[in-house]
Design a protein that fits this description.
With 380 residues, the chain is mostly helical. It has two domains: 158 residues, no CATH class; 203 residues, Intergrase catalytic core (hpI Integrase, Chain A), CATH 1.10.443.10. The chain is 39% helix and 8% strand. It is built from 14 helices and eight strands. Strands 1-5-2 form a three-stranded antiparallel beta sheet. The protein has a three-stranded antiparallel beta sheet with strand order 6-7-8, covered by helices on one side. Strand 6 and strand 7 form a beta hairpin. Helix 5 packs antiparallel against helix 6 and helix 8 packs across helix 10. It is globular and about 70 Å long. The relative contact order is 0.11.
C-alpha cells in the first residue's frame, strides 16, 4: 500500500530535516535524493561538507514487507549519501564567479565522475540551472547563456547524443498475463486499488495516450459513452483541457476503444478488455466520487478526489511491476508510464496496424516522431 501512496515523500520532510541539522549544529550522514531542481537542494548543498557518494543501483535498493515488495523505479530517486555539517557558516554567495570559483561550484553540484561518465545532456542542463541560481548575470546574460557554458553543453550533446531505446525494458506478454490473475481478477470483486491499477494500465496501452491525456478523461455524459452491449467506449477530454503539445488534434479527437472479441480458444483474453475494465471501474466508485475526472484516488483522505498526473504515472509503473511480482519474475528496471506509448505502438505496428492509424491515436503529427523516439524492436 505504501508503494502506491507514499512515493515520493513530501519535500517538506527533508526541508525540516535540514533545518533541524542546522539548528542543532549536528554532523550527520544523510541518505537523500540528488534532485537539483527541488527547493531544498540549495540548503542541502550549503550543509554538505564533502561531495556526495552515489549509492549503487540495485533492484532491491528500496523495499518493504521484509524485502518482499520492491519499489518499481529505484533509479528515479538517484540516492546519494551526504556528509552534512550543521556548523558550517559558509555558503555559496550571490556574486560574479571567477574561473576558479566556477570550477569549485561545478564540483559541488556535479556528482563525482558525472561528466566523465558522460551524463545525459538534459541532466547537465539541470545542473547548470541549479548553479546559475547562485550567481548574478555574467556579461549581461544569465550563467546558462554564457558562451563557455553554451559550448560545453553543445560538446556534451555531441559526445553523448540522445540514444532512444531499441528494445522494451519490460515484456508486454508477461505484463498482460499478470493482469489476468490475482490480485487483478476477478475484477468486479477485487480491492479498488487493484481495479484502478489494471484499468489505468489497460487504458494507457489501448489508447497510446500520455498520462496527461489519461488524466483529462471525464465521466461526464458528454465525455464518456458506452456502446450498445458495451461493444465499445468513447472517451473525450474534459472541456478546457490543454494538452502537452497544443498543436495535437487531441482537442477534438474521440478515443474509441473497441471491446475485445470473446475467443473460444482463449476465453481469458476477455479479461484484458479495456471496455470491460472501464465499465466495472466507472460503476464502482459512484458513491464516493467527488469529481468528474475519470480516474480518482482509491484510498486515504483523498479517496474519491481527482488523481494527479504524477500519481497516475506511478499507478502505471506499479501495475507493470506488480504483474511481474505475481508471477515470480524479477521487476524490470527503468519502468516508466511514458514507455507504454512505445510498447503499445510498436506492438500495434508489428501486428498489422497501419502507421497512420497509430500516429492518429497517439497524437503524433508525422511518422517521424514514432520512428525517432518510440519505435522498438518487438516480435510479432
Amino acid at each position: 500500500e505504501a508503494l502506491a501512496h507514499s512515493w515520493p515523500p513530501g519535500p517538506n520532510l527533508l526541508a525540516q530535516t535540514l533545518c533541524k541539522i542546522r539548528e542543532d549544529e549536528e554532523q550527520v550522514l544523510l541518505v537523500a535524493p540528488y534532485w537539483p531542481t527541488r527547493t531544498w537542494f540549495p540548503d542541502l548543498i550549503s550543509l554538505a561538507a564533502a561531495p556526495p557518494w552515489k549509492i549503487p543501483l540495485r533492484r532491491d535498493l528500496l523495499s518493504q514487507g521484509m524485502g518482499t515488495i520492491w519499489h518499481p523505479r529505484p533509479d528515479l530517486w538517484n540516492l546519494h549519501v551526504w556528509f552534512l555539517d550543521g556548523m558550517r557558516q559558509t555558503s555559496l554567495a550571490f556574486h560574479r564567479p571567477g574561473p576558479t570559483e566556477m570550477s569549485d561550484c561545478s564540483s559541488a553540484f556535479l556528482p563525482a565522475g558525472e561528466v566523465g561518465a558522460q551524463a545525459v545532456p538534459s541532466t547537465l542542463k539541470v545542473y547548470v540551472a541549479a548553479i546559475a541560481a547562485y550567481y548574478d548575470a555574467v556579461d549581461g546574460a544569465s550563467l546558462g547563456k554564457h558562451q563557455l557554458i553554451v559550448r560545453f553543453l553543445r560538446g556534451a550533446r555531441r559526445v553523448n547524443p540522445p540514444r532512444p531505446h531499441l528494445v522494451p525494458s519490460w515484456d508486454l506478454s508477461v505484463t498482460l498475463q499478470g493482469l489476468r490473475e490475482a490480485p487483478f481478477e476477478p475484477l468486479g470483486s477485487v480491492e479498488l486499488k487493484y481495479r484502478s491499477l489494471k484499468t489505468v494500465l489497460l487504458t494507457a496501452l489501448a489508447s497510446i495516450k500520455r498520462v496527461g491525456d489519461l488524466q483529462a478523461f471525464s465521466v461526464d455524459e458528454a465525455c464518456l459513452e458506452f456502446g450498445p452491449g458495451d461493444s465499445h467506449v468513447i472517451l473525450r477530454p474534459r472541456p478546457g483541457y490543454v494538452p502537452k503539445v497544443p498543436t495535437t488534434p487531441f482537442h477534438d479527437q474521440v478515443v474509441n476503444l473497441q471491446a475485445l472479441p470473446l475467443e473460444e480458444a482463449d476465453p481469458a483474453s476477455a479479461l484484458l478488455c479495456p471496455v470491460r475494465a472501464l465499465r466495472i471501474y466507472v460503476d464502482c466508485p459512484r458513491h464516493f466520487r467527488r469529481t468528474e475526472q475519470l480516474f480518482v484516488c482509491f484510498g486515504g483522505q483523498q479517496k474519491g478526489n481527482a488523481v494527479s498526473k504524477q500519481r497516475l504515472a506511478h499507478w502505471v509503473a506499479y501495475a507493470i511491476s506488480l504483474s511481474y511480482q505475481n508471477q515470480g519474475e524479477p521487476c524490470p528496471l527503468g519502468v516508466c508510464a511514458h514507455f507504454t506509448r512505445s510498447v503499445a505502438s510498436s506492438y500495434a505496428l508489428a501486428h498489422g496496424a497501419s502507421l497512420a492509424d497509430i500516429c492518429r491515436a497517439a497524437g503524433w503529427a508525422t511518422p517521424n516522431t514514432f520512428a525517432r523516439f518510440y519505435n522498438l524492436r518487438v516480435e510479432a
